[in-house]
Amino acid sequence: MNIRPTSAVVAFALLALPTHALAQPTPVTPFAQGTPGTALPPGWAPQTFPRIPKHTRYALVRDGDTVVVRAEAAGSASGLVFRVTAPAAEARVLRWRWKVDRLPQGADASAKAGDDAPARVYVTFQFDPAKLGPVDRLLYEAARAIYGEAPPHASLMYVWDVAGAAGRSFPNPFTSRVRTIVVEGGRSRLGQWLDYERDIVADYRAAFGEDPPPISGVAIMTDADNTGDRASAWYGDVSLDRR
Fold it and tell me: Which of 38, 83, 97, 173 is the most buried (most CB within 10 A)?
């Protein structure tokens, strides 16, 4: 099996461009402002990865009286990203909704070989070299040389995990700088719209033992490249609010 570090790649590469040139003010542009069959709403952009040739398909579609994003993965991985520059305390409440109808068989967010998920929402935080040890600083400098800009300092990844129940939290199998937080698991709530709210400051402190640096972006991703299977989901609006 060709194991690709998908979730680590998205968390450390999706914002590897200068945020000062690409930043968008909060709030995050709602998908509901889009029109089915047209381009993504302003600020949202696709993110693909050089070593992953097959990309997840994302499209604006109508669901009842609103517009959402439909994601379909077939042995593929890519994401949608919205770059933000904001102090975490000013945008600490993350809200989103999603619906999943197909799980990638064999997926397990805690294992490299199964690191696929039908739905993920990321929050990434700006690079802060003062908070890194010598080994991490070397890794970040290597990433800077490759991408021309340092990747995020750290990321929170909220995920629907096929293999486990909600409530678990653990480091990503590829890097400790990405914290996986399982907000949904298994099959019991497939086909339902589900709403979530998280305090990202509290989640960051619990994950990394310190206050977060400023936010650098949010992203969504549906992927099935490691398992080679299929996954599908819908994403409603994602927002960052002060309270």
Answer: 83
